[in-house]
Structure formats: C-alpha cells, structure tokens
UniProtKB/TrEMBL annotation:
Domain Ricin B lectin: 111-246
UniProt KW keywords: Lectin, Membrane, Transmembrane, Transmembrane helix
Signal peptide limits: none
Keyword Nucleotidyltransferase: no
Composition bias, Pro residues: 101-110
Protein name: Ricin-type beta-trefoil lectin domain-like
Organism of provenance: Micromonospora eburnea
Residue ranges, compositional bias (Low complexity): 60-100
Residue segments, region Disordered: 57-114
One protein family per Pfam: Ricin_B_lectin
UniProt-recorded Gene Ontology molecular function terms: carbohydrate binding
Length: 246
C-alpha cells in the first residue's frame, strides 16, 4: 500500500499539467542555445532588409559621392583673364628731310667782272654822267669800265660791287627794303644796302641778293631793251633775276 500524498490543500488531481519551457541546466548548452537564437535573429534582420552587407559604409560612400559631385561642379579655378596685348610702340614718325640750301656762289675774283642779264644778254651799266644816284640799267655789252664791277668781300660771303669807271658802289636807294626800290650807284660806305650775296640759280646763272632786305636785283618789268632799269624784288628765280658773271 502506497504512502499517502503530501500535496498542499486545494490541489486538483487528475488534470494535465501545463507546458513550461525550461533552459538547460548545462552552461555549454545555454551558450549554444544563445548562439543559435542570435543567428536566427541575425538571419531575420538580413532577410527583412534592416541590415545590409556593407550597410554601415553606404552613407559614408553617399556622402563621398555628394562631395565628389560638388567638387566636380565647382570650377577648378577661376578663368584667368587673358592679358591684353601690349600695343607695340607707335612707329616713330620719320623726320622730314630739311631741304638743303645750295651754298652761296663765290663772288667774282681776279679783277673786274661784268653782270650780264640772262634773258637779254645785255650788261649792267650806269645811266648818265655817273653821279650819286645814277640808275643801274641794261646796256649793250662793250667791255667798257662803266660796265665792269669789282667785288670786295666785307663779311663772310657778302661783298660790295664797285664800278671800275668811277669807284662808286652798287646800292639800293635809301636803304629801303620795299619792293620796287631802285638799284643805283652811290658813294661807297659799306652799309648793308651796298652789300650783296650771290645765290645759285640753276647750273650757271646766279641771283644777286641785297643783304639788308634779302631781295634780288632784277630788270624792272622783265625788260630786255637797252636802258631797262634795275630794281629789287622778292627772289623768285625768274629769268629777269638771273645773271651770268663774266
């Protein structure tokens, strides 16, 4: 005969006891069970997409991509403005050639000389009885002393012209610088209105230039007849201003 049960009061007999999950008592079994549970949970997370392979690095890669795109979008460097071409030095204007002035012709040397008008071929003489103020005129060339003039240098290339017949000098009336003033003879005093220079007029003839006025002795009215008087006028090189020395 069995011993009486010692269950506490109120115990109901004859019913099935409920299922209880109990952990293994063995520590190794517990560790194995924990690893298995962790593996199952990890598989569930991967399957649901909560965790992805390399998921921890993806945001950083995205950030790197954005940064890369931003870096690409920005210009590497501002366009360096091209340096404007320095203008070449302006060409230096060529200096205009200064017209060369022919050197003055030398006065006649070696004794008296005649002044022969180029257009007429007549010689310069003196009208009248050779007083002061007698007009210088054209005359047929005779070779007489009244048609001969002695050149005496006075200043540089200037000279006086003295009539070989009476010793008076070729002179411009009243020391005037006006156009048309008479060329005459007068007692020699050496003033500028009695000083002359020769200027070339082509290959042979010369111009007779008064020092005081810078004007030329010419035959008035471009005359060619005997007795045509001489006067001063602006130098043009016209035939009536050209003289041949002989």
């Amino acid at each position: 005969m069995s011993e009486p049960r010692t269950d506490p009061p109120g115990t109901v007999y004859g019913t099935t006891r409920g299922f209880r999950l109990r952990l293994p008592q063995d520590p190794l079994m517990r560790i194995a069970l924990g690893v298995a549970v962790f593996g199952v949970l990890l598989g569930v997370f991967f399957a649901s997409g909560v965790l992805r392979v390399g998921g921890g690095d993806q945001p950083a890669a995205a950030g790197t991509s954005v940064a890369s795109e931003s870096s690409t979008a920005e210009p590497s460097s501002e366009a360096t403005p091209t340096t404007e071409a320095t203008p070449s030095s302006e060409a230096t204007p060529t200096t205009e050639a200064t017209p060369t002035t022919a050197p003055p012709a030398a006065p006649p040397a070696g004794g008296p000389a005649v002044l022969r008008g180029v257009p007429s071929g007549r010689c310069v003489g003196v009208a009248g009885d050779n007083p002061d103020g007698a007009r210088a005129v054209l005359a047929d060339c005779t070779g007489g002393p009244e048609q001969q003039w002695v050149a005496t240098p006075v200043d540089g290339d200037a000279f006086t012209l003295t009539n070989a017949a009476n010793g008076k000098c070729l002179d411009v009336y009243g020391q005037s610088a006006d156009d048309g003033m008479a060329v005459q003879q007068w007692s020699c005093h050496g003033q500028p209105n009695q000083q002359w220079r020769l200027a070339p007029a082509g290959t042979g003839p010369v111009l007779l230039v008064a020092v005081h006025s810078g004007k030329c002795a010419q035959v008035a009215g471009a005359g060619t007849d005997p007795g045509a008087p001489l006067e001063q006028a602006p130098c043009t090189g016209a035939p009536e201003q050209q003289w041949a020395l002989g």
